[in-house]
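thread: overnight batch results

M.L. [08:02]
morning all. the overnight job finished for the chain we discussed friday. pasting input first so we're all looking at the same thing
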Amino acid sequence: MMECPEPTPSLSHTLTPQAGSAITRFMSTPEQREQTASQLQSAISRASQMTAFVGLDGFVDEILHVVDKRENAEKYLRLPKIAQLADRLAAAAGRSTNVELVSQLTKLGGNGPIMANALASFGIQVTYLGILGYPNLHPVFADFAKRAELHSIAEPGYTDALEFEDGKIMLGKHQSLKQMNWENIKSRFGQDQFAARIGSADLVGFVNWTMLTHMSDIWSAVLKEICPGMKGPRRKLFIDLADPEKRTREDIAGALGLIAAFQKHFDVILGLNEKEGFEIGKVLGLSTDDHSPEGLLKLCQEIHQRVPVDSLVIHPTAYALASGPDGTAMVQGPFTPKPKITTGAGDHFNSGFCLGKLLGFSTERCLLTGVTTSGFYVRTGQSPSVADLAGMLRNWPVGV
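M.L. [08:03]
and the structure it wrote out:
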């Protein structure tokens, strides 16, 4: 088991806002939103000159609704809550039941493609390496290929995403994911090209550690074979574990140790949703009993103390919070009880937060950019441009 390393002197500068720092309440006032909108509007040309290298997964997602009652061949009532499906399935134990699924759309999926596609919508020059079809791209990624430079070394995974008003259930078929490994990266993409991309991109993104079972090995290889030869300014590295509940405590602890090790070479951002925050807290032996916003912010700080990276971000559905080099912050998001789509909302938040980081925003404004990006996406089903973000900040939705 790889233990999470204790903070080292070379990393201590990233930890100064931690224990004892004042909690910043950032409630997204009209003045603050206008200031952030102005910053974004003036940064459109800067964003278009930035580069990102993101990977390493890839899925074909089918978004599905579960039928509650069917009225006729065309009309049905949707099952709105996850608990209602759970009750229906539980009642079928020892018997049997039929569950009808209605396809809403088929789209590109995977944490990496969704995040990278959102970054490209900001105008950032994106290169993506993943599993998008091999030797030819799957057609679902055709539009993505128009926005970004794509490289694929294996077939994608497939996900049936059952969407409800209060969340989603992701049913995955992951046979091809084991093909994303260091040997295939070297043979099908090239180690020199991989090193060049990592060493030159303003933002590097490694996402979906949980499903990519060779990701820790890839990280170890990058730390050993690539990072020591990197030159130039410190760059930003975003990492998303992606629901590590099914991985062992030893695997999770080892991944956290590798993530902390990347801080020597990058300004590392570790992004978690609420469920993941509590799972990581348990692995680190922290108290996870307080599920209030204040309790979650305290947990965020405590995780950050034990995983010494630049920024630790946790994004529940209705708000987001972070512990960064300038302190802690909490931002209320433009929550809607009736989202058009929820699959990919977290990846859009991550892209917005990283946009703020690339533009040098404070932690508070990175959070605000993140929640605005996800808020736009769940209402429209589309990835926003930087101008779209500025427009939403200036016309902030309330209770819709």
